[in-house]
Structure formats: C-alpha cells, structure tokens
Design brief:
globular, 11 helices, 5-stranded antiparallel beta sheet, alpha+beta, 5 strands
C-alpha cells in the first residue's frame, strides 16, 4: 500500500541549490563557448586547416579542446547547444523551445536541432512515475487505474505522458511532473532574477527585469497541474457552443499537483506525414477552425493558449 514519505526540513537548502546552479550554468556557458570554437575549426575547409592558415581559431581550439566533454567535443555546434540546454534542465530547455521557433533570429540548422527539445527528452523510469502518482493521489496505482503503460508517449522538459485506462475502462493520458523539477526551476529563477537586476541597469529600455519576472511567474505555474486543470476546464466551458473544437476532459479524482489525468485524444502533429493524407477541404477546415479558435480566445474570451508549439 501507499506509505507517505518522511517530512524533512532544511531551511538552507534553497540557497545551496542556487549557489550550485550558478557554478553549473557558468560551467556549461564556458563549455559551449569552447565547444563552439572547436566545432568552428572542424567545419573549416581542409585547405584552411593546413600550414599557418586560421592560426587564431586553430590555436584556441587546440588549447580549449581538452576541457570540452568528450561526448560533445566532436558534435556540431547546434547539437552541443541542444545537449547543454538539456543538461541544464527545464528552465533552459524552455528557453531552447522559444529559440526553436525563432527562425527570424537563428539559422535553420540551429532551430531544427532545438525542435527536438519539444518532446524528445530522456524519460524517467516507470518506477519513479508510479511513486509520483501514488504520492500525489495518496493511493496505490491499482486503486485508480486499471492499467498504466510503462513506456511514455512523450517526454518534455517538465513532465512526461503515459497512456492509461481508468478502472471503468476509460482511455486517458496521465501526465507526471518529473522529480526535482520544481526545486531546479526555483533555483534557476532566483539566478535569473539576479541577472535581471543587473541587466536592468545596463539596458533598461528593454525591461529585462519585468520580462524575467513574467517568465518566472508563468514557468512556476507549470509545475502545479492544478492550474493546468483549471485552464483546461475554462477552455472547455468557453467553447461549449463549438462542437468542432474540443478540449480533453479532466479527471479530477485522478489528478493533483504533480499528476494530471485527461481524456485521450488520438491525433497527429502538424507537419507529420499524416497531414499529407488530408484532402484540400479537410486542410481548409482545420485551418479555419484553428485560426478562428485563436481569434476567439484573444478577442472574445480574453483567455488564450500561450504555448502553441508543435510538441503541444
């Protein structure tokens, strides 16, 4: 049966986490800069890597190369960037997701690589998923679900999703927030707020402190599924008169802060191979419904989905 974990109090833990994160972030920034130089030299044409040509970059790459992790040293720069964002955790993965859709700012070779951050991140093992479900719902899994698929159908920066069935046979998706995510995000946000105060003095016209505060408020709500459950039910109520636009039903009795159980919808992503099978009429219908829903959210309801990337 379910056994609640012991309660441990450590008032200095948040500050220790912040200090550790400062050193971790700085280490990865330096590693990315060094790895970028190595990748630049490796990408030079053969004739520019001979003799005395390109002496500055070649010497720098020779000196810093041994300090770059062996698993990253031989990778192109976009791969190094994506992997270091993954290693830094959810806050920086969120940053990478934002950069992945900014083809107006970054080369396509970089944005294509960063698109892997949407839902192709390493999952946590199922025993950890089970423990999170039981801790959040305060019951054994078998008292809530008839079945939970051990392999996830998607794994993102903050959570991962599993197919499941309720005791009455209803097909659902169970989203579970990965362990330790909230602590890492809180430490990152403390670090970013300190950076924001410094940037405010340098570039006040861009309001970096306000931008970071808004990013922090939005991100910290993502690690509490009670907010997402409320939002999903609000969307469903707003579109109750539009049967062609549906939102998954939330099963509150199987949900909590770290677990969200919702109705399973079978579908496919925009841009997948199955989109080619749609007829021109079906394509036009999907576009009209999608654009109309967004316009309605913005201008009629004043309540809109602010994270419409391909992973969602």
């Amino acid at each position: 049966g379910y056994v609640p974990p012991p309660l441990l109090l450590d008032p200095l833990a948040p500050y220790r986490r912040t200090v550790r994160r400062i050193f971790t972030v700085w280490r990865h920034v330096l590693g990315l800069l060094a790895g970028g130089v190595v990748a630049y030299v490796r990408a030079l044409p053969p004739e520019r890597r001979r003799g005395l040509r390109s002496p500055g970059p070649r010497l720098t790459a020779f000196l810093v190369g041994p300090f770059v992790a062996r698993t990253l040293r031989d990778q192109p720069f976009p791969v190094q960037l994506r992997r270091r964002l993954e290693l830094l955790g959810p806050t920086f993965i969120k940053l990478g997701q934002i950069l992945a859709i900014r083809e107006d700012l970054l080369p396509s070779v970089v944005t294509r690589e960063l698109q892997q951050l949407f839902d192709r991140l390493p999952p946590i093992p199922y025993p950890e998923v089970r423990a999170i479900i039981e801790r959040t719902l305060r019951r054994p899994v078998e008292q809530v679900f008839a079945e939970v698929a051990p392999a996830p159908i998607g794994s993102a920066s903050i959570a991962q999703a599993h197919r499941a069935r309720l005791l009455d046979g209803t097909a659902v998706v169970v989203k579970v927030i990965k362990p330790g995510i909230a602590d890492v995000i809180e430490a990152d946000l403390r670090l970013l707020r300190a950076v924001g105060h410094l940037l405010q003095a340098v570039i006040p016209r861009y309001q970096p402190r306000q931008i970071i505060e808004e990013f922090g408020a939005y991100t910290i709500r993502e690690v509490d599924y009670n907010f997402e459950a409320d939002n999903a039910e609000m969307f469903a109520a707003n579109f109750a008169d539009e049967p062609a636009v549906r939102f998954p039903r939330i099963f509150r009795e199987a949900s909590g802060r770290d677990v969200l159980t919702m109705e399973f919808f079978d579908g496919f992503k925009p841009g997948s191979a199955r989109t080619a099978e749609l007829t021109p009429g079906e394509r036009a219908r999907v576009i009209d419904l999608g654009a109309g829903a967004i316009v309605r959210m913005l201008y009629q309801d004043g309540f809109f989905h602010a994270d419409l990337h391909a992973g969602n």
